[in-house]
Amino acid sequence: MAFYQSGDTIVALSSAQGSGAIALIRLSGPEAISIAESVFSKPLSQKPGNSVQFGSIKEDQRVIDEVLLSLFRAPHSYTGEDLVEISCHGSAYIIQELIALFCKSGARQAEAGEFTLRAFLNGKLDLSEAEAVADLIASDSRSSHELAMKQMRGGYSKALKDLRQSLIDYAALIELELDFSEEDVEFANRDMLQNLLKDILLKVGSMRDSFHAGNALKQGIPVVIAGRPNAGKSTLLNALLNEERAIVSDIAGTTRDTIEERFVLNGTSFRLIDTAGLRDSSDAVERIGIERTHHELKKAGIVLYVFDGSNTDPATLQQDLDSLETGAAHVIPVCNKTDRMEQHPNLKFGAIAGVIGVAAASGHIQHLLETLSSIPDTIKANQGNLLVSNMRHYQALANTAAALESALSGLDSGLGGELLAFHLREAIRHLGSITGTIDADELLGSIFGRFCIGK
Amino acid sequence: MAFYQSGDTIVALSSAQGSGAIALIRLSGPEAISIAESVFSKPLSQKPGNSVQFGSIKEDQRVIDEVLLSLFRAPHSYTGEDLVEISCHGSAYIIQELIALFCKSGARQAEAGEFTLRAFLNGKLDLSEAEAVADLIASDSRSSHELAMKQMRGGYSKALKDLRQSLIDYAALIELELDFSEEDVEFANRDMLQNLLKDILLKVGSMRDSFHAGNALKQGIPVVIAGRPNAGKSTLLNALLNEERAIVSDIAGTTRDTIEERFVLNGTSFRLIDTAGLRDSSDAVERIGIERTHHELKKAGIVLYVFDGSNTDPATLQQDLDSLETGAAHVIPVCNKTDRMEQHPNLKFGAIAGVIGVAAASGHIQHLLETLSSIPDTIKANQGNLLVSNMRHYQALANTAAALESALSGLDSGLGGELLAFHLREAIRHLGSITGTIDADELLGSIFGRFCIGK
């Protein structure tokens, strides 16, 4: 991506490709208004910003379209520049003719993300807010929408800026000490400095660690359905999806490939992953399937451990749960086939916490659905407003934390002031890269290349 | 399609479906502004028409999106009603949430074409202009765009209204004569009446007959490539398309199925149709192919009659051209393989008009391309502004002409005044149906059902 040549005016189709009643074309830059005026049927130079004109666009004597033209004057526009939005008939031919005409009149085709890049460069958005615009457009559930909206509206940037400010204040304190080190003046004692740094590290670390949860809310929480063969895992998957997705049979070991399906519950996406039943098997294909189950369990956010309530005793269940190797924050023992049990599951498995009874084959899974749908709120409540959902931010936070740890261990071992200051500067730089307080072409390219053309 | 319930406010996505930077949602009706205001972050009731506001749309406390909201006040809007356009982020989730919110707030989802229907019912467009909006959105070449644009901007309606007015004036003259018939007063002599009617019929007939050409310009002019086997028809098709579309071999009878491809030259679409070579064949499949060639020739707008210049003598060519059964307005004898000829084609075939030399295999087809690209202008010049491209209009014009012919033969045979008046009323009614001077639910449904939702 060739970067910001100030002085030129860009043009692109901003609404979706394809046939629609209306299409929207945007022009941004110093010549946006004069270029539009040169082909429009009415004078524009005296029109106020935020006004709409109806008229026709002509090339020589040929009318290309009758359009609505909205005018925005710098800095009161999305990009912070003069901006013209043209709402034309949604014909591919008309769109192509209009964009060609604007290019002939002095504009150039915009690169992907270039409108938002200009908004960033003109200080209308910081980097993390700009990234949230792309996330917002891609959002497909209430949770991912909520994350992106919070980030775009700056709540997240505010927290990062506060954190960065406390690091800068801290660094200033250290530099001051350095200046006076010969004179043996102590502005803050070492213990106090250490506690201050530990406090900042704690906050950075907690933001970094929220990535797992934040990313799950954005991409869908991975829910692994595991258990012994014939416990009814595939039947449960089908019941949750309300369709016959997985093949179900009485034969143990029916499922071998892992099956993954998205499913939105109460505004949050879940990625349901049905797996091969856990047992020692002599069948080679089944053994590969079981290997995959173990792999999925490690990456899971939630595990639904399904067992057949009618033929499982509590001791075996406890043993199975204890031997489960998973990184999931939530493991839910799901007691299936309650309709074939003589006892209520709570009576039989009372000693094991959180057992939920279902009869998957007849679709009785209401209690499980309620439990699942409460988990996103738990995640959000645990993390406050500071959920990190962007891989670039996660890496920057991890780098910040690493630099802070170096500084902290330096303090412990009596590291020289200059080296301490170096680690602190590193931490400040990494934290600043999230909102774009530092910039580099490489960084910008990697962010704005994700956008679609016209944004 | 349930029709116009005045009093309700409609909402729809007006930009194309799919992911884009921006999407456009329209609200139209008496409550459009108050519904928008009830969820928007700023008051709207005092804002002037044709103004744009930036703000956020909230449901309860949750921000759904930050949007640009354009306000249009009746009657200065596309529909002639109060109209609000919301330009939001192009996420399918946000679009769905916003439309659901507007529906909760009192709007209902618009039917296909309902915005344009309201524009028609409020007198912003007549019927033929409204139909042109759909044609404009579907237009995919300069010629189809030009036809639709002329029709939308009313040039066509003006001609129809003038024609209708002269019929009404004529009918008034007849009715006047009827009133005074007992008194043997003659306001206009029969010969004059007859000449007047003949003149109107001539104009209606010429518009009706322009449908063939108008429809060809809209849908693509059918160009049939015909000729004897091995003349190089498929080679010519490939050269025109600049790709290896048809299988080419030295074996006579290679092409059996007709092959059809669209191709845009100088702003006009052509439908190129390659056919089986014309000869007596004993091969059953080839015979079916030759049958199809005859069928295509009848429907052709242009025939490219291809022959091998190196082994065809002028007399045979003249014979072949004479025996060609086609309805095409243009038959172009294309002399192929000029690179293997000793003489210049103009010398060898000088006696036959309009022969064009090509060497299709080596891509020398420039002269043919020039001839083809001049044909649309010839069509437009012949027909003036009155090209009919809509099947409904064609039928209405044909009905008008039929009624006028009945009136005319009635004049000849001394038909009674009442019957004459009946035929004239029929003619006026059919002509009026094109611009919607008469209306019927059935007629409206068939027109507006063609639109996409949101228009």
Structure description:
2 copies of one chain form a homodimer. Chain A is an alpha/beta fold and 455 residues long. Chain A has 3 domains: 10-125, Gyrase A, domain 2; 135-210 and 389-435, Four Helix Bundle (Hemerythrin (Met), subunit A), CATH 1.20.120.430; 216-383, Rossmann fold, CATH 3.40.50.300. The first copy, chain A, contains 16 helices and 12 strands. Chain A has a 6-stranded mixed beta sheet, with helices on one face. A 6-stranded mixed beta sheet of chain A has the order 8-9-7-10-11-12, with helices on both faces. In chain A, a hairpin with a 2-residue loop joins β3 and β4 (62-72). The longest helix of chain A has 25 residues, at 155-179. The first copy, chain A, is flat. The two termini of chain A are 15 Å apart. The mean pLDDT of chain A is 86. At the A-B interface, β2, β3, β4, β5 and α2 of A face β2, β3, β4, β5 and α2 of B.
